[in-house]
Write a structure and sequence with these properties.
By secondary structure, the chain is of the alpha/beta class. The chain is about 20% helix and about 35% strand.
């Protein structure tokens, strides 16, 4: 199963892909422009807008894992004349775990295109030129992970996703055992400092890092609001795509994920030999499920 993070831009996705491919030399990029979209002419996409990115896959191998992102230009931007980039609605956090701090210093300089204070850059406080925040974790276990932060209910999220995807979270660390253990009160000691949900993809893994916010650990309060499922942290719905050739497993996982969710589309054939479904789960995360009949390229 391949896990990808989805990002949508407003006319400059080609530049985004070129940038990350230049920073990560081992990255692979597959791109389809609107020229390859059957309905482009009907939708009024013409001229230079046909060269905008309709679909793309950016895969960055990293030790025994791989970070995959599916990036595109907005269909609305392609249908209009203006190609202005107004920034992302949601700035995702990607954590890089590595034991060589000098390597990370050089990498962050490339990603942020500036020197900056390492202490600030490594904490993911700033966004790079294309809207992603990068965070550094010093660790002998090297990896690159998407990060999702919750307000005190990460333990519930972990249990739910473990059941949905039938996998066990790895490397679960609580705040009481973290570098902040001397600052965290007893009420917050059981909050999750970090855990990895690992999706096996060939001989690599695609991992999602789950955690509670520092503030929620400091006050020890679970702030889950079942009425706020449409927005993650009151901002935007992060979008993940899962691609898997085991249709039965995919459909069963989708059914389990529907508990408390907002359904966008049931798992149904897409007319191209695959089955597709989409929902926003009860924690505000959007999931697209696709069955695939061939090997996934990266």
């Amino acid at each position: 199963m391949r896990l990808s993070f989805n990002l949508e831009y407003s006319g400059n996705c080609n530049s985004v892909l070129d940038f990350y491919a230049s920073v990560f030399n081992n990255a692979s990029v597959n791109v389809k422009t609107f020229k390859e979209m059957d309905m482009a002419e009907v939708l009024g996409i013409t001229g230079p807008r046909l060269d905008m990115v309709w679909q793309s896959e950016l895969c960055i191998p990293y030790e025994d894992g791989v970070l995959c992102m599916e990036m595109s230009d907005s269909l609305m931007a392609a249908m209009q004349k203006g190609l202005d980039f107004n920034g992302l609605y949601y700035n995702p956090v990607i954590c890089i775990a590595h034991d060589d701090e000098n390597y990370i210093r050089d990498l962050l300089k490339k990603l942020y295109k500036k020197e900056g204070r390492f202490e600030r850059l490594q904490n993911g406080n700033d966004t790079d030129p294309y809207g992603i925040r990068w965070e550094y974790q010093k660790s002998r276990r090297r990896g690159m992970f998407y990060c999702l932060t919750f307000d005190g209910f990460c333990g519930d999220v972990i249990s739910f996703y473990e059941n949905v995807f039938q996998i066990k979270a790895a490397e679960i660390i609580k705040y009481g055992d973290s570098p902040y253990k001397d600052k965290i009160p007893a009420a917050g000691a059981d909050k999750i400092y970090g855990a990895l949900l690992q999706f096996k993809h060939g001989n690599r893994t695609c991992a999602l890092k789950l955690r509670d916010s520092y503030d929620s650990a400091m006050d020890g309060i679970n702030r889950y609001d079942p009425n706020a499922l449409l927005f993650y942290q009151k901002f935007y719905n992060p979008v993940f795509t899962l691609r898997e050739n085991d249709t039965v497993y995919l459909s069963e996982s989708f059914k389990r994920l529907m508990n408390g969710a907002k359904l966008n589309r049931e798992m149904t054939p897409d007319g191209k030999g695959s089955v597709y479904g989409s929902l926003i789960d009860k924690y505000g995360i959007c999931w697209n499920f696709y069955s695939v009949t061939e090997d996934i390229s990266c």
